[in-house]
Write a structure and sequence with these properties.
Layout: H1 2-40, H2 47-61, E1 64-69, E2 74-77, H3 92-100, E3 103-109, E4 114-124, H4 126-132, E5 141-150, H5 152-202, H6 217-252, E6 256-261, E7 266-269, H7 271-277, H8 281-289, H9 291-303, E8 307-313, E9 319-328, E10 337-344, H10 346-381, H11 388-420, E11 428-430, H12 432-450, E12 453-458, E13 465-467, H13 469-485, E14 492-499, E15 506-513, H14 535-540, H15 547-557, E16 561-567, E17 571-579
The structure holds adenosine-5'-triphosphate and magnesium ion (MG).
């Protein structure tokens, strides 16, 4: 478009100036010819010769010649009969010649039907007188000499020039378009590749770099973009690393961490939260909406300092949680959100409960025999001591209660010693048959008294176990004693020992009875201190409820394990797993 406009303006300007240039040239030419003619012009009074003069010289000057008198009347003309021609005085060129000494005009001739250029010069007397007399009197206007030339040729030439200019312009335009398109193409392809590059960067492909192909502004742009991508990549890497670090820290925490914003929306949580509340977030949201947590969050926002409370959730499993809420300080004083830390305190709470129960149990266990002893001693002091029969019976009761007291204290001491790690077990290679034989020896009488059959079955070539002999006897005595105690008359208690087929490094010693059994709900609690399924029966049997607790601990220090299976009314099997001595 720019080329089109430029060549158009140039063409117009050229044709215009050329036309006026050529016209001036023609005018000058015609004037010089007219001046030449003036010197050969016959006297204006010789009317017929004037016409002849005009006609004869027409071809020499190649222009129409017209001679007028001072009034504008045509005296002679090269092309027409003078008498038929109108007065020329008021024509433009004649008027101009009259005033300025020479005149020109371009006009459309109605007789010739084309544009003509006219020049006119005044004819003055002195021009002729000069030659003859040499006097210097003021020249007198005699008439006018007019030359006319059709502009057809000039116009034709101009048209041709114009055509050439148009053709030239068209060629220039074509060239400009071809050059422009190829330039635009190469520019476009470069810009398109830059666009694609920036899009890839926008999509996060920051490893990408563009080749700098030129040293121009585009080259600089590409260089800058490359630098930008590099810088961005480095900064993102730092951000990613920081994020990863934070995530690792959060993931390695043992407490659940939850961050909520000012509106209670969850911003962040760590994997422990999922462990506590399950993968389904609905449970967590429910807890978050609970009164306790809502109050905590409100309190934190108000106090702007740490507050804590405790909650208990029942699903996915029952856990006690200590919740600590800490405000996240915002730019202004008002907190931006809250960090909630959930700590599983189920175990701690259970231990606390166990401690409380233990103290209560010990006191209770001690009170019963002590009350009995005190009662009987007081009765004796009150005079029963004199009644010998009664006195002996009472003293026997006192003795049995003191036995029970001392057994209780022994058991407690053993237990606490094991727990404190005070009891050293000395492990040696112990043949199982030997140990079982001594246990049977100790309890045979008790079983006989109760009418219970006591047996031992073992596979041949039973290997020895690695254990503390006395402790192993203690374990077995406790278990067999339980079997006898909780089996009715006529029942059977058997000890079976064999090497485990699936784990050949382990010896399994099973103590089976056909007794009353233990309800399933009570199984997990066996081994707790003072836990007894049937308190009255246990007490009647002289039990303290500490036997299994001691056994459990002793098995543990032997790096063995114990499993109890039972069916109410059918019997109980306690399986001991102990390492085989190699
Ligand atoms: P201790 O052993 O201290 O004299 P205990 O026998 O009552 O007293 P544990 O040996 O710890 O205490 O046993 C705890 C409870 O487990 C018993 O009171 C009883 O209710 C139950 N129990 C243990 N062994 C058996 C068994 N073989 N059959 C039925 N119940 C059992
Ligand atoms: Mg027992």
């Amino acid at each position: 478009m720019v080329v089109l406009l430029c060549t158009g303006v140039l063409g117009l300007y050229l044709t215009f100036t050329l036309k006026s240039f050529f016209i001036t040239q023609i005018e000058q030419h015609l004037f010089s010819e007219a001046n030449l003619l003036l010197s050969y012009l016959p006297d204006l009074s010789e009317n017929p010769s004037l016409d002849k003069f005009a006609r004869s010289l027409k071809h020499q000057v190649e222009a129409r010649i017209t001679i007028l008198n001072s009034e504008g009347k045509v005296l002679g003309d090269s092309d027409q009969i003078p008498s038929s021609m109108e007065n020329h005085l008021f024509r433009l060129e004649i008027q101009e010649a009259l005033q300025k000494g020479k005149g020109t005009a371009i006009r459309f001739s109605s007789t010739l039907h084309q544009n003509l250029i006219y020049v006119a010069l005044p004819i003055k007397k002195s021009s002729r007188a000069l030659e003859t007399s040499g006097t210097s009197e003021a020249p007198k206007l005699m008439g006018f000499l007019q030359l006319a030339l059709p502009l057809t040729e000039l116009e034709h030439n101009l048209q041709e020039i114009q055509n050439k200019i148009i053709l030239g312009s068209l060629m220039a335009m074509l060239l400009a378009v071809i050059l422009g398109i190829s330039l635009a193409r190469s520019l476009e392809s470069k810009i398109l590749s830059i666009i694609a590059f920036t899009q890839r960067i926008a999509h996060g492909e920051l490893e990408e770099r563009m080749k700098v192909t030129s040293q121009d502004e585009l080259g600089t742009l590409i260089q800058n973009l490359n630098q930008m991508a590099e810088k961005l990549g480095e900064e993102l890497k730092v951000v990613f690393e920081e994020k990863k670090e934070k995530e690792t820290i959060l993931a390695s925490l043992t407490d659940g961490v939850l961050v909520v914003d000012r509106h209670g929306k969850i911003i962040l949580s760590n994997p422990v939260m999922e462990k506590l509340f399950g993968p389904d977030t609905s449970k967590l949201l429910e807890v978050l909406q609970s009164q306790t947590i809502q109050n905590l969050i409100e309190e934190v926002q108000e106090k702007k300092s740490k507050v804590s409370d405790e909650i208990q959730i029942l699903s996915p499993r029952k856990i006690d949680l200590a919740v600590e809420a800490v405000p996240i300080k915002g730019e202004e004083e008002s907190p931006e959100g809250t960090i909630l830390v959930f700590r599983d305190v189920t175990r701690i709470k259970r231990l606390e409960q166990m401690r409380v129960d233990f103290v209560a149990n010990v006191s209770h266990e001690l009170r019963t025999p002590l009350t009995a002893i005190k009662g009987f001693v007081e009765t004796l002091l009150d005079g029963a001591i004199d009644d010998k029969d009664h006195a002996v019976r009472f003293l026997k009761i006192v003795a049995s209660h003191s036995d029970r007291l001392s057994r209780l204290l022994d058991d407690l001491l053993t237990l606490s010693n094991i727990e404190l790690g005070k009891i050293k077990i000395e492990r040696s290679v112990v043949p199982v048959e030997q140990v079982v034989q001594s246990v049977l020896l100790m309890l045979q009488q008790k079983a006989l008294d109760k009418g219970i059959q006591l047996t031992f079955e073992a596979s041949k070539d039973l290997p020895p176990v690695l254990a503390d002999r006395d402790r192993l006897i203690q374990i077995l005595v406790n278990l067999v004693d339980n079997g006898i105690k909780y089996t009715e008359k006529g029942g059977r208690v058997s000890i079976e020992a064999r090497v485990r087929e699936d784990q050949p490094h382990l010896m399994e010693i099973a103590i089976k009875d056909t007794g009353i059994g233990i309800p399933e709900s009570a199984l997990p609690r066996l081994g707790e201190r003072f836990y007894r399924v049937d308190k009255a029966r246990s007490r009647a049997e002289g039990g303290t409820g500490l036997g299994l607790a001691i056994v459990k601990h002793l098995v543990e220090v032997h790096e063995g394990s114990m499993r109890i299976e039972s069916q109410v009314g059918k019997g109980t099997t306690v399986r001991l797993m102990l390492p085989i001595a190699t």
